[in-house]
Amino acid sequence: MTATAAAIVSVDSLSVAYRSGGRDVPVVHDVSFDLRPGRTLALVGESGSGKSTVAATLLGHLRHGSRLTGGTVRVDGADVFALPARELRRLRGGTVALVGQNAGQALTPSMRIGRQIAEAGGDVPVVDLLAQVRLPRPAELARRYPHELSGGQQQRVALAMAIAARPKVLVLDEPTTGLDVVTQRGVLDLVGALRDELGLAAVLVSHDLGVVAHMADEVTVLRAGRIVEAAPTGRLFAASQDPYTKRLLASVPRLDDAGLAIVGEDGEREVRPRAVVAGDAPVAVSARDVTVDYGASRAVDGVSFEVRRGEVLALVGESGSGKSTLAWTLAGLRAPSGGTMTSESGDLARPARERPVSLRRRVQLVFQNADTSLNPRRSVGDAVRRPLRFFGTAGSRAEAAVRARKLMSDVRLDPALVSRLPAQLSGGQRQRIGIARALAGEPDVLIADEITTALDVSVQAEVLRLLDDLRRERRLACLFISHDLAVVRGIADRVVVLRHGVVVEEGPTEAVFASPGHPYTRLLMAAALEPEPASAPAPDAEPLVEEVPEWTDAAEPDDLWTDHGHGHRVRRWRPAAREGAS
Amino acid sequence: MSTLETPAPPPPSATPLAPPSATARAWRTLRSSRTATVGLVFVAVHVLIALLAPALISYDPLANNADQALLGPSGEHLAGTDQYGRDVLARVLYGGQYALGVSVAATLLTVALGTVAGCAVALRGGWFDDVLGRVLDAVLSVPSVLALLVIVTALGTGPWVIVLAIAVVSVPQVVRVVRGAALAVVPADYVTAARARGEGTWSILRREVLPNIIDVVCVEFAMRASWVVLLISSLSFLGFGADPPTPDWGLMVAENRTAITVVPMASLAPIIALATLVIGLNLAADGLSKAWGVDRIKEGA
Amino acid sequence: MLSFIARRVLAAVGTLFLSSILVFLAVQALPGDVATQVLGRDATPDAVAALREKLKLDQPAWERYADWMGGALHGDFGLSLVSGKAVGGEVGLYLGNSALIALVTVLFAVTGSLLLGILAGLYRDRWPDHLISTVSLVGMSVPEFVVATVLVLCFSIALPLFPAVVLYGPEASIGQLLPAVWLPALALAVVMAAYIIRMARTSVIDVMASEYVTTARLKGLSTWRVVTRHALPSALLPTLHVIALNVAWLAGGIAVVENVFNYPGIGKLMLSSVQNRDLPVIQAIALISAVVYVACNLAADLGAMALNPKLRTRGRTR
């Protein structure tokens, strides 16, 4: 009982149910944990694990339609769900504060930043709070509206709002999901610093084991509303006991994997060597000096690359790097404003509807979000049959039906699912249908636009493996677009790093990861969080920015590259003189 | 991963394995939404009465009978008679024929035109959208009652004139609603996928867009129908709709209003008939939109 | 921000221009010869010729349009075919009387329905919501003339508080008209409020379910503060346009109600001029209604700008 006595948060056999269709659907079942002051506990799980529901109960909040079916939540000695309204209000903000995932939606659009922070109570002046979350020009910023801030800035404002009344416990619900990796790292470092500075206890909700390893002292793994394992971070990552945890950990791609990790039932991890691309494999797609403009702004600026049959080329970059624009341009959904794009079967510079059918079917796009890429009102079989019939790869209706079932088994799906609607499938299943639909045209080139981003980590591992199998079996040239370096490391043969529409570095995956030549690539790699707890217990001891030199572009029109051999080349740059905070 | 995630979707076993057919879906909706059921029953009863009126009552709704004028409700005339001695109940029962016939025709025409135009605008976009938007706004800017009055005085009060006139004044609003719904669908990746395949505009419209806005169109139909019924009755009330001996609710209220203290039923009966029909349509629209998650009142009036 | 206002105003002027063409065409393009239409089939050729002369029907349509518009911009809508008086003055007289009803209606309907709509939204699925929603459903299911008739039955016949019909002409003073304003205004307000209530309710429900309202609650703010500061500005935004549409709708709805009460307003003038085929008056009324419609929408757009900082700060850098 000593731990309980010292605990500031104590959740005891908490159960929550959601009322749906006249019956109770349990969301959280018998969850218990304690949190002592100054410590950080992570609630980890995949979507639907109930982790956010548990976190919100610390503030006495349940979503509309949910109710407490058992257990207690005590914060700072008070039973949260037994508090009268007035005291619950005092608890919220005063004792426990929440930072949500999407600050863009968590800030009231019609109120100035300063007023929203001031409202949260406390005696600290708003300007000081904004300075404390390392926002530049706080006095000016306080007068801004939320939509005038970038995503990272919004999240910092949400943090300022949370610490305004100097709470004792901070609940962080996926605080950096949706942020770019460099921004994420900055926000996490800030959270860590504030936590130590103010002596806060924190509950961190995350699906990202890298973030958890970086931030948490203790980890509680949830699955379908139940605790599967709870342990100190070091022990959990080094020697997890539960097979689900093991599988989860093993599924996370690492920056030092030399190939794709194949995860077994019990969580054993085996790295499959990269497929060897035949030296004489024909070039499937070749892009030269491609430029794409959106009105006055240039999204893609003079990008060149080649992909050979059976090869995976990764386009890596943060949001706004132009990587998705490039994908859509190749698929004929956007017109390039300059440069050439050709494939084995024709000119790719023309928009889709002007391409001959033989070309259209050979270049296929798989979308990021399988939820929106399938028509919710048509069966998934229909989604696969349509291109079969449309491209004429299946002659008759009956043949199309047979081929569709075959394609479904090709993407490791049960053909019996053919008559389901997309909503009746899981996210991973839907993404497989998206791939099957693309395969229906018997393409040479597959453009995969962030296809695993919306998926849980274990599902992501399966989809990546499928993609790797397919390119081996079908000798697909694959353009793999991603923001996640660790994912790219496992699947790509070559990497192209994009920044603001410009290629800053390209080369064989091994070479780029072993010795990144461009500071931007180094920044991306440094910011990526590995699912391994820092050996030193103070993660904030290594501020990110110091690792990477300030730089400016030094490319001349006739001298763009520094060549590192074997096709590894880096855009010219030079260290920049420091000029204050930028 | 949402901040406060929704509970896990019900296990697949809870949902039917095959995609439900349209009728099965409609049936499920009805079972799940009492509001929609009640509304549709109201409407169905009205349709039945209008169709079966000759079988339900033996009085001729047009037969004057000066001896029987202005009678209160009695066993012989359940709702009394009007100033010409016509049986009020007979006129109310027959009255639905005109109201429903003209309303259904006008609403069908309006919604069909509006859906096609709305989808086309959403898919095409650009200057086409701008120009059409301005023109429709200009049409909306003239009060529909005034526009109807002018058209009807110029072209006569024939049912087809009224149907066309109503289509002219109400298509713009349907276009707005459908355009809004279609605009939400057009940027979806499955439409993009169809575009990348090189499918034609019509095929995209039919295969990808329409199935996803059919809810909105249905709800709009019910709502538009209620609006049209009200408009037609107002027109009749003002003397520009149904021609006098025709049994029509709006006309009946206009005719019997002056005698409301003498034979209140002669005014109240058509009012009740009118109100129940419109309430039924509104309930149906409400229930369906709730069951299907359609944001119904986007446009208000 | 200025460019936003400028664009909206420009669009409004464009719409108005289109409306005027539409009104002109619709009225002038009545099938058959306009003069014959106006005078009826058995008019003498001389009379038809005289009217053609008067309406300048021999000139090309665009010239007549230019004449008409040029006059209209100066408030000169020509002469009434029935009374022979200047249309501008006549319409103005009736319009003033109608404005009295419109003012009362808008005042009551907008404030009342916003309050009720917000209340229903906040008490979603509880008894105040059920009550308000049911009443507003009935309100929007009953035509204006029915509401008016029922009101007459209740407050003029059963309880003789207000006059059932107005016995004055258009020149009546405000003092004479004032007692007769309340019932028509109430009838219009009931119908109009129904739509606004429903919209306000829906958008309050939407906004109350938003993430930022949840965040505000979890900040420990009082419900009052959450509702007034965080929820209402955004919830009113979509309601604004519905209010504008409904105020514009008054121009048509007033026609029916004024005829029930024999109120000497623009609606009554509208009906009688349609019956008499008094084209200049019809054109003038249609154009004025279009101005009202466009002005209401413009006001709603500007109101939206006041409520939505995204529109206000457009163009400012990050």
UniProtKB/TrEMBL annotation, chain A:
What sequence ranges are listed for the domain ABC transporter? Answer: 9-249, 285-525
Q: Matching InterPro entries, A to Z?
A: AAA+_ATPase, ABC_transp_ATP-bind, ABC_transporter-like_ATP-bd, ABC_transporter-like_CS, Oligopep_ABC_C, P-loop_NTPase
Among Pfam families, the record links this protein to:
ABC_tran, oligo_HPY
Task: Name the SUPFAM superfamilies for this protein.
Answer: P-loop containing nucleoside triphosphate hydrolases
- Mind listing the UniProt keywords for this protein, alphabetically? ATP-binding, Nucleotide-binding, Transport
Q: Name one GO molecular function term.
A: ATP binding
Q: Where is this region: Disordered?
A: 556-582
Q: Which domain of life is it from?
A: Bacteria
- Which terms does the UniProt entry file under GO BP? peptide transport; transmembrane transport
Task: Provide the leader sequence positions.
Answer: none
Q: Where is the composition biased (Basic residues)?
A: 566-575
The family annotation for this protein states: Belongs to the ABC transporter superfamily.
The cross-references to PANTHER family, in alphabetical order and at most eight, read: D,D-DIPEPTIDE TRANSPORT ATP-BINDING PROTEIN DDPF-RELATED, TRANSPORT ATP-BINDING PROTEIN
List the protein's name: ABC transporter ATP-binding protein
From TrEMBL, chain B:
What does the UniProt entry say about where the protein is found? Answer: Cell membrane
Q: What is this protein called?
A: ABC transporter permease
Q: Main localization of the protein?
A: membrane
Please give the start and end residues of each transmembrane region.
35-57, 98-123, 221-242, 262-284
Please list where the region (Disordered) is annotated: 1-21
Q: Which organism does this record belong to?
A: Streptomyces sporangiiformans
Family assignment from sequence similarity = Belongs to the binding-protein-dependent transport system permease family.
Output compositional bias ranges, type Pro residues: 7-19
Q: Which domain of life is it from?
A: Bacteria
State the taxonomy lineage: Bacteria, Bacillati, Actinomycetota, Actinomycetes, Kitasatosporales
Which GO terms of type biological process are on file? transmembrane transport
What region holds the ABC transmembrane type-1 domain? 96-283
From TrEMBL, chain C:
Q: Where in the cell is it found?
A: Cell membrane
UniProt cross-references to Pfam families, sorted A to Z: BPD_transp_1, BPD_transp_1_N
Tell me which UniProt keywords the record has, alphabetically: Cell membrane, Membrane, Transmembrane, Transmembrane helix, Transport
Query: Record's superkingdom?
Result: Bacteria
Per the record, the major location class is membrane
PROSITE patterns with a match to the protein in the record: ABC_TM1
Any stretches that span the bilayer, and where are they?
Answer: 99-124, 145-168, 180-197, 235-261, 281-308
Report any one BP term from Gene Ontology.
transmembrane transport
Stretches assigned to the ABC transmembrane type-1 domain: 95-300
| One Gene Ontology cellular component | plasma membrane
Gene3D superfamilies, A to Z: MetI-like
Protein topology in the membrane: Multi-pass membrane protein
Q: Which family does it belong to?
A: Belongs to the binding-protein-dependent transport system permease family.
**What is the protein named?**
ABC transporter permease
Native source organism of the sequence? Streptomyces sporangiiformans
* Lineage summary: Bacteria, Bacillati, Actinomycetota, Actinomycetes, Kitasatosporales
